[in-house]
Amino acid sequence: MASIQFDKNSWIIDGNRVFIKSAAVHYFRLPRSEWDELLDKVKKAGCNCVETYIPWNWHEEAEGVWDFANDKDLGTFLKKCEERNLYVILRPGPYICAEWDFGGLPWWLSSKENMKYRCYYEPFLHYVDRYFDELVPRILPHLITNSGTVIMVQVENEFQALGKPDKKYMEYLRDGLITRGINVPLVTCYGGVEGAVEFRNFWSHAEEHAKILDERFEGQPKGVLEFWVGWFEQWGGPKANQKTAGMLEKALYELLREGFTAINYYMFFGGTNFDHWGGRTIGEHTFMITSYDYDAPLTEYLQETPKYQVIKRVHSFIDWVEPVLTNPATIEECTALPEGLQGKTVQSKAGSIAFLTNSKSERAIHKLYSPEEQYQLSITIEPDGILPVVKNVKAGRLAGKTVKISALTAYSTGFFNNVGTVYHETGQQSSLVLQVKDVDELSISCPYPQRYEKLSSGELQFTLFHGSKPQVISIKDCKNECFEINVTDRKTVENDDEIITAEGEFTFSLADWYQAPEKMDESMSKESVKPLDFSSFGQWSGYLSYTAQFDSNETGQKTLIFPRIEDPAQVFLNNQYIGLANDLGAASIELPVEKGNNSISFLVQNMGRYNFTQALGEPKGISEAPSLDGRVVDLLDGWKVEGIGKTHSLRNVPEIEGRISFLKQFVNDQGFDKAILVGEGLQRLRLNDGVPVMLITNETAWNRFDAPYGVADAGHLLHDGFNEFEFDGQGLKGISKLKIYLYKESKQIENWTMQSAALLNQPKDWQKIDDRFSKEKVEPCWYKTTFTTSLQSNDDVKVKIRLDGLSKGTFWVNGFCLGRYWQIGPQEEYKIPASILKQENDLIIFDEEGSSPLQVSIETI
């Protein structure tokens, strides 16, 4: 039976120290037909491990109905990892975050009365136990202790990242895994439960994280469970491609320098949020786009990127020096370095590596003399770069004796089977000192401009020139056994790694387009005094329509207040489109009402539940009755420091000493009796000396995210006439939103009808449209067309679709929901898995505004 253990230096599998090089991939974000290609490319990059979450809600979409078949076949995915000798780190939750709807929790949990999440709350734990009872037996056969390759299982996920100290809850989950048979090491990241190895999640500042792990967790190896090589994107946000391949290379060397011996690339392959599975993180409009490409080493289409090539090269280097990295005796600061250079040396019996960092803004070129070894080394490091200087590491054998690299000041992909490659920036020099026996009996071929000399120590020192033309140093012994060193420049290495792909090889011709109006099934409707959120309605995602009637004594503009809304809503009044209510938490919109009876309706797409926040389980859609004749007060400006007359804006809060209050006044002269506060970044906010209204604060948000926002009911604190806000501004830099929505309970619109909308299988009245098609009226509309393919099952073809000209909605190919779309960026292209395509294919689109589909295009990449 295989075993996995650890000590303070590294993981130990079957008695061998192993550097864990793990690829984060999510089997639920690509079809099963692509798993083989994905895992083959993971292996090709030099990874020896795969990490994946397990989304509870994906396997139990309906309560008590489990699905582990087809694309959800976790067992087959784990077997495919085993076939490739890939270790596996499993992260089963029950909460996983992952920018996945509800952080992996089933939506139906939020329909349970008074449900609490991620805490020691018996009703919640009842369902967690059911989940573990179903899941863990499926995992057990794949543990390394049972001849599988699962080497670690995570307890929960990032539990203390938002300051939740529920020790009893974490211990319950830990014990639940153990008692069900999990006998491989348990791990956490920001979880800190006794009996589990603690990892960190980060991208930069490896030194600080290493220090935390060393100080807090004795006897454990250092690992980063989420090494953020890219980032997710949100609708309407910027393109998240700020982390370059060069930055990744430097960050990897920082990890090696600090003694990390387990790295999980999050994400190595991101994939796609098909259907409505994309989540929502803290912040007002942080809804995940359909693509989860993550600017990862493998794209959403499984294509290799420059980051992939960096990882592949560094992995090859790690494989060479693994004995040094996984069992160091010391990690010490380098001394006696020239100005502008800093470094640390990882020292072990197997050799040493000095990671030298150039902190200057210009290239550092130095000659370093080592009195102990009696040789001088050429050092060249790019600005803000790191160079690993390898010393006394085995590289091969000649004449039956070990060849060692006494010193190498170039980058390397390692030495294997007597062959190695070293590279540096074009035109630069480096030094290589070889320790070989019986130098005089060796035949050395060293083409110009390489130079070498025999040192008094008997070693060979080469001065290497890294030009654009690769060269080979060849050393042969008397038996003609050869030791080769390929000397080249970085550009050549990177060009050799490049994968050439053809963009837009083939464009599919779309047939005639047809349109159909949205018709809702009245049999799937519910009535209620106030609107029902998605969970209360009994629907996990998709679309809901809300309809009601109200009377007005006059014609004119009225302000409609949404006291609680968590998704953008299209607003229609008397069958006319009014606009999009796009504020969240609470919102308002101006209505041109008519005298007498008015009909109002909203169309709401569930854009994803929170996957990362202190307040999981928000009511999706609309959950409180909208109110007429309301008022919105923007509270950002007009604040005074107590005792001082000058006013300030909360966008840029002045520095103050001590806990001095900021004050703002407003007058409620219309008899409002209800008030909803929506804002960000404030704590201890008081209204009229009442108990502080706690909005989610910057201090409790994790620093990897923008400031979150919170919603607070302040109606019970509201006065007629004069009102005053007060808050402690100590440490506050600035916020971008703080509003109060005022309304009267008597003006709330009641008696609502809710219906499921945008249902693919609902009968439709299709009508052909021509190439002059345009729509003057904004209204939801369906479109369909067909296209033909001649793809074979073994074709390595990637297919994408552009939805130019459309607005916002959902689309399907051959009945498979490809996800949400919203033409506000940053996503412009959407993946169509080749596995769902046939010779004749149906494309169906639901567009919220009924915009023209005539610019839609499909092509291969």
Describe this structure in words.
With 861 residues, the protein is mainly beta. It folds into 5 domains: 20-304, Glycosidases (TIM Barrel); 325-497, beta-galactosidase, domain 2, CATH 2.102.20; 507-515 and 760-860, Sandwich (Jelly Rolls), CATH 2.60.120.260; 519-630 and 750-757, Jelly Rolls (Sandwich); 632-743, Jelly Rolls (Sandwich). Residues 780-840 form the Beta-galactosidase galactose-binding domain. It holds the Pfam family BetaGal_ABD_1.
Q: What's the alpha carbon Rg, rounded to whole Å?
A: 31 Å
Q: Calculate the mean pLDDT score and round it.
A: 93
Annotation, overall tally of beta strands: 56
Across the major sheet, the strand order is 4-5-6-7-8-9-10-11
Low-confidence stretches: 697-708
The CATH architecture of the largest domain is Alpha-Beta Barrel
- Which band does the percent of strand residues land in? 35-45%
Main beta-sheet strand count, sense and barrel state: 8 strands, parallel, barrel
The helix fraction, in percent, is: 10-25%
Helices, strands, pairings?
Layout: E1 4-6, E2 11-13, E3 16-18, E4 20-24, H1 35-44, E5 49-53, H2 56-59, H3 74-83, E6 87-91, H4 122-139, E7 150-154, H5 167-179, E8 186-189, E9 196-202, H6 206-216, E10 222-228, H7 245-257, E11 260-266, E12 280-281, H8 306-326, E13 330-333, E14 341-348, E15 351-358, E16 364-370, E17 375-381, E18 386-391, E19 393-398, E20 401-408, E21 411-416, E22 419-424, E23 428-435, E24 443-445, E25 451-454, E26 460-466, E27 471-476, E28 482-489, H9 490-497, E29 507-508, E30 514-517, E31 525-528, H10 534-537, E32 543-552, E33 556-565, E34 569-573, E35 576-581, E36 585-593, E37 596-605, E38 610-612, E39 631-634, E40 639-641, E41 647-648, E42 661-668, E43 674-679, E44 686-687, E45 710-713, E46 721-728, E47 738-743, E48 752-757, E49 767-768, E50 781-788, E51 799-802, E52 808-813, E53 816-822, E54 829-832, E55 840-847, E56 857-860
Parallel strand pairs: 4-5, 4-11, 5-6, 6-7, 7-8, 8-9, 9-10, 10-11, 12-38, 22-28
Antiparallel strand pairs: 1-2, 2-3, 13-14, 14-15, 15-18, 16-17, 19-20, 20-23, 21-22, 23-26, 24-27, 25-26, 27-28, 29-56, 30-49, 30-50, 31-48, 32-37, 32-48, 33-36, 34-35, 34-37, 39-47, 40-41, 40-42, 42-46, 43-45, 43-47, 44-46, 50-55, 51-54, 51-56, 52-53, 52-55
Protein name: Beta-galactosidase
InterPro entries: BetaGal1-like_ABD1, BetaGal_gal-bd, Galactose-bd-like_sf, GH, Gly_Hdrlase_35_cat, Glycoside_Hdrlase_35
Domain Beta-galactosidase galactose-binding: 780-840
